[in-house]
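Database export, one record per block. Field names are fixed; values are copied verbatim from the stored entry.
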Amino acid sequence: MNSETSAPVSLRRHLSAWANRLRGREDPNLRAARQHRSFDAMSGILAWMLSYAGDRVPRPGASRGRALEIGTGQFMAHAAGLHVCGYERVLTIDRYRQVSIPLVRASMESPVLSRRLLSPFVNHDDFVGRLGRLEATGYDPSGLARVGVEYRAPMEAVALLEQPERFDLVFSYTVLEHVPPQEIAGLLSASARLLAPGGVALHFVDMEDHRDPRTAPFAFLAPGEAWGEAACGERGNRLRASEWRRLFREETPLDWSFPYAPVRHGAPLPEQIDPRVKAVDVLDLRTTALVAMAIAPDSPQ
């Protein structure tokens, strides 16, 4: 349920990190924690996504209530960012337990830009105070829970429906594209039902081939072997934008908008497209990402 979803993929990454250490090489996950998965980098993404919600996301000094992040990953940077932005409770869940405390610490070790990037949502004094409380926990899960950041894994979103808690924000980033297609309808339905009245759902779906997104973002659309859970976890589930729009609209009672849907014209498409890939046209095939946003009714239906 997250950008590192599949258990076999996660195991391979741990073995690869161990092998790299034996060879005296830097763990690529540690490098990522200090670069594109750093708290600064992920704060920029969080601020960009929250900006789509407009006045539905409270401004500095206002109460924010509860946030749910679907798909924690290894670094926990977005959960930390939501806490810093003022959410009194942040529940972050994963299908498999993946958080690495050393990677979380590496991601959080040198926040320079995050204070400015998140300034539309939190004032300076609150930012410093909340970041300091996070640092004091050492990013140990038990300490984080005491300041309002709870990590649950393994955990399925549908299991949350068994308890009465509802959330003012339901958020995911590069998560849904790793969910096997047969499980998406249930996940979207459950996550929509977790919204409190007036709550905001924000999801970013990355539809490029994760094996080589820079030079071969559409390679996985070629005919090939059965596309199972391991392939979804490693490369993405291959669903295109039209199918995502249909699923969001048909599997939930919410009114969804899709304010960001970039099309990539320069990268090559495979000569043949796997017939299992559903797309309405070439632009649909070439759409590389989607932001999906919805606001729950202000009173329960």
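Remark 1: The chain is about 35% helix and 15% strand.
Remark 2: The two ends are 28 Å apart (CA to CA).
End of record.
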